[in-house]
Specification:
Layout: H1 3-6, E1 13-19, H2 22-31, E2 82-92, E3 101-116, E4 119-132, E5 135-147, E6 170-174, H3 178-187, H4 198-203, H5 214-228, E7 234-241, E8 251-257, E9 262-268, E10 274-282
Antiparallel strand pairs: 1-3, 2-5, 2-7, 3-4, 4-5, 6-8, 7-10, 8-9, 9-10
Length: 283
């Protein structure tokens, strides 16, 4: 792997435009089993729901075997077969609203190689800056990790040493059925087959079940916060995926207050392990 070549992508940028429309908002609310009023022009977009906009629009002929667009172009052509959303850090300056014309400027800020138990890992960090007529609304640093395929006989789900989840102040159990995963894939136009194609994810990538999207889990964590503290406004949010979550078991989204303006959030799988760690700052 030629790291110097991959790092030539640092500084590359692309710009996309979109409009915040009401129907995806209503659809995601239904997907998360919320009983929200129908969004009207001027309604605020909840935090992280911007992931339904600026969706990838690769033509069918440009899709790779895993359902993602083929490598190259804006993202560096990392020669590792498995790509996952590892985490991110977001600042929310003001909410996007239904009817907004929005622009996203994306720039690659880092490409780094690390080595773990499963082999080489390549981390690509992309910064997104989203603006509307009122100025800069969201700044997001998005971490993508590329991994090699598991060795024959090894578990594809192998991860870092598990961490027990702490006791929660509030929590909600999630049933990650295939309909939930399909609807979120459809709303974000995510063709990655690990989220809906069971024969592919078990037979090719070696996982025991469909993988719950990292962004969906992060969205469920902030949805828990909205249910618990409906009057609060999230100003910052950071999350890191620790272990994969599969549709074959329930999991829980959990949280606790950490002072007047901070909340710790995490997910706990059916065995009691922490699978995603997150923190939020609120007003």
């Amino acid at each position: 792997m030629d790291l110097d070549h991959l790092r030539e992508w640092i500084g590359r940028s692309e710009q996309r435009s979109d409009e915040v429309t009401a129907t995806p908002i209503a659809a995601l609310g239904a997907t998360l089993d919320r009983d929200d009023p129908l969004p009207l022009p001027g309604s605020d977009l909840p935090p992280l729901w911007h992931w339904m906009y600026f969706t990838p629009l690769a033509r069918a002929s440009e899709i790779g075997d895993d359902g993602h667009p083929r490598r190259g172009g804006f993202l560096p052509p990392v020669p590792l077969p498995r790509r996952m959303w590892a985490g991110g850090r977001l600042q929310f300056h003001h909410p996007l609203q239904v009817g907004d014309e929005v622009t996203r400027l994306s720039r690659i800020t880092d490409v780094e190689v690390k080595h773990g138990k499963s082999g080489a890992l390549v981390f690509v960090t992309v910064r997104h800056e989203i603006t509307n007529a009122r100025g800069l609304a969201i700044v997001e640093d998005h971490d993508i990790v590329y991994r090699d395929a598991p060795a024959p006989g090894a578990s594809a789900a192998a991860a870092a040493a598990p961490q027990p989840a702490p006791a929660a102040e509030f929590e909600r159990k999630i049933e990650p059925d295939p309909v939930l995963l399909f609807r979120y894939s459809a709303l974000t136009f995510n063709g990655h087959r690990i989220h809906y194609d069971r024969s592919y994810v078990t037979g090719v990538e070696g996982y025991p079940g469909l993988i719950v999207h990292g962004p969906l889990i992060a969205t469920l964590l902030l949805d828990l916060l909205r249910r618990q503290l409906p009057q609060s406004r999230v100003t910052r949010f950071a999350f890191k995926a620790l272990r994969p979550v599969f549709d074959i078991h329930t999991f829980s989204v959990c949280g606790r207050r950490d002072g007047a303006h901070a909340v710790q959030l995490w997910t706990r799988d059916h065995e009691g392990w922490n699978t995603m760690q997150a923190s939020a700052e609120i007003d």
